[in-house]
Design goal:
The complex is a heterodimer of chains A (254) and B (102). Helix content of chain A is 66%, strand content 0%. Chain A is mainly alpha-helical. Chain B starts with 14 loop residues before the first strand and ends in a 23-residue tail after the last helix. The relative contact order of chain B is 0.18.
Amino acid sequence: MSADPVLLFDYLLGLGDDRLVLGNRLSEWCAHGPILEEDIAVTNMALDLLGQASTLLNLAGQVEGKGRDADALAYLRDEIAFRNVRLVELPIGDFGFTIARQFLFDVYSFHLMDTLQACSHTGLAALAGKCVKEDRYHVRHSGEWVIRLGDGTEESHGRMQHAMDKLWPYVGELFQPDAADVAMTAAGISPELSTLRGQWQLVVQDVMGRATLMVPAVVTAPPPGIRRGSHTEHLGHMLAEMQIVARSHPGAKW
Amino acid sequence: MSNDAKSGTDGQWPLWEVFTQAKSGAPHEHAGSVHAPDAEIALQNARDVYARRGEAVSIWVVPTAVIAATSPSDTGPFFDPASDKAYRHPQFYKVPQGVRVF
């Protein structure tokens, strides 16, 4: 069964936008990292995510068939058309918050891409095969930092626990299927999100346990009315900065 | 000097020397150094600093503090005596026919 192209477009936008927005957030650490080596590491991960976003949005543009490429989708869409989850658009906070958010997303993304690389859509499967290698490293990097900061000093432990507590209410959205998810699961493209949540929970509980962090509670559904594509007040500000050059100088080349 | 990799003396994380292998079978060669609190993070930092453009297939990291090195004052006694011992070089041997000379 092949997927409805409109819903496939929506689904690919969700995948691309999560990585575009999180990559932008991570890149805010460039030249502000806690140490030189971590500055480079975080910037590398930001570039990985922007690269993933670029290929996913280009594929979305092809599926849509209206001549929009990744640049058009990234720079010329308004906030309301972005399909990322709220988790990735929250401000970077302190380094602990950035690492905690990154870890929670990385584990989700790794298991998602691991399934997608064997999915029925050959174009998406090929992209996912590339993403899964990068994601495997991201999980290792952010996971090791969660352990070191959680099981570190009293201050680093406190900050990590605070970050996890703040992030937890946003996690449910990752596993809340919307119309596009339901259609993609039926078409043999995306995994059941409840299965993905189970895989995610095992890894997150293991790492947080080793980090001596309390897992706040079971992952609950997002509040009523909140679904993929709902946004906090933070996304608009980020997009304004991200899109200003492309919108002020349409078609500019450099 | 302490050999404990966890004790930085300059207020920073300890220093690790990084050796990268360009391809399988090639020797690991010194690439530079990174700061890191432990071996796992040292490997990750080395990967991001010295192998992010595809330069390596394998990385070693070694705490700088455990490397024993000659000092500049050793130069005379260590190395000068070797400079006038031409007979230690193998070029006085005749290479038999059929042996490839590198």
